[in-house]
Amino acid sequence: MAINNFNPIVWINEHLDIPFDEEEIAHVRDFTLMWNLFEKIACERQFNEQSIRRHIRESNIDSVRFAEYFNYFVGRYVNHENANNYFSHLFNHRDSAQRTFVQNVLHGIDQTNENIIIVCILISYRYRNNLFHGNKELREIHHQRTNLNAAMNVLAIFLENIPNMV
Hints:
Elements: H1 8-16, H2 26-42, H3 49-59, H4 67-77, E1 78-79, E2 82-83, H5 85-91, H6 96-106, H7 113-132, H8 145-160
Antiparallel strand pairs: 1-2
Helix pairs in contact: 2-8, 3-7, 4-7, 6-7, 7-8
């Protein structure tokens, strides 16, 4: 196995018997790149909610730009008045205060400009954690395409509003 000839897709297909192809999981690669940029530029290499809130206040980002993705998250994680099973898996017994905050905003409680953007970022962060910490079943990873595409758009909009991004 030569260093520059290693193909993880071929390796996974051969050793784990998971029939991947490059195009089918390109969204995972793309999300990884976008998250890397986001964490480097917006978070100074360490994700934290306070730095995100500071950027929102300093740049006056309008949550209207996030509306499509916020509405997608509401539709995905809220059934009628309750959070659904997807929401439970998203937070996977993590930070109960953050979980309650996200759930409340998705349910229409305290939907300020800042909170809507924060919720979009926090959900994207949960995707990152669930993906990078092995919570996603590889055989089903292609089902995450829409989630990761929504998250990448959220990250891109946020980054576009940071002065001197590069």
